[in-house]
Amino acid sequence: MPYQTQSTSLAGCSILVVEDEPLIAIAIADAFTQAGARVVQVRSFKDALVAAVDDPTISAAIVDHVLSDGDSTALCARLTQRNILCLVHSGYPKVESLVVMEALHVPKPANPQLLVTMVNTLLEGRPTLH
């Protein structure tokens, strides 16, 4: 097996992963960790809302649209208010409320590396807040 170096394209970034399917959550978290990011992983919107309010280091969020305790509407709104990039990773083909909240929709299944690339590209294009 060839030696792979760990990318640091997202070094210094914290990524919130909100996903209730363990294998999907692990794959996404691993991809972001390999890119150098710190990952905060939760399985419910209740826990995600706490992280969105309490963790000042969150740079971006990958959010499943529907979990057992609700949909992502309130969470994405809160993240957008905090100027946190929000990608909704969902099997639902069209999520009406996301248009209003400016969240991006990435259909499931998506390669976790695609999510990393998208987040990296979008964060690089954002102005730095001082």
Structure, explained:
This protein has one domain: Rossmann fold, CATH 3.40.50. It is 39% helix and 23% strand. The protein has five helices and seven strands. The strands form two sheets. The chain has a five-stranded parallel beta sheet, with helices on both faces. A two-stranded antiparallel sheet has the order 4-5. Helix 1 packs across helix 5 and helix 2 runs parallel beside helix 3. The longest helix is centred in the N-terminal third of the chain and has 13 residues.
SSE inventory with pairings:
Elements: E1 14-18, H1 22-34, E2 38-42, H2 45-54, E3 58-63, E4 66-67, E5 70-71, H3 73-81, E6 85-90, H4 96-101, E7 104-107, H5 112-124
Parallel strand pairs: 1-2, 1-3, 3-6, 6-7
Antiparallel strand pairs: 4-5
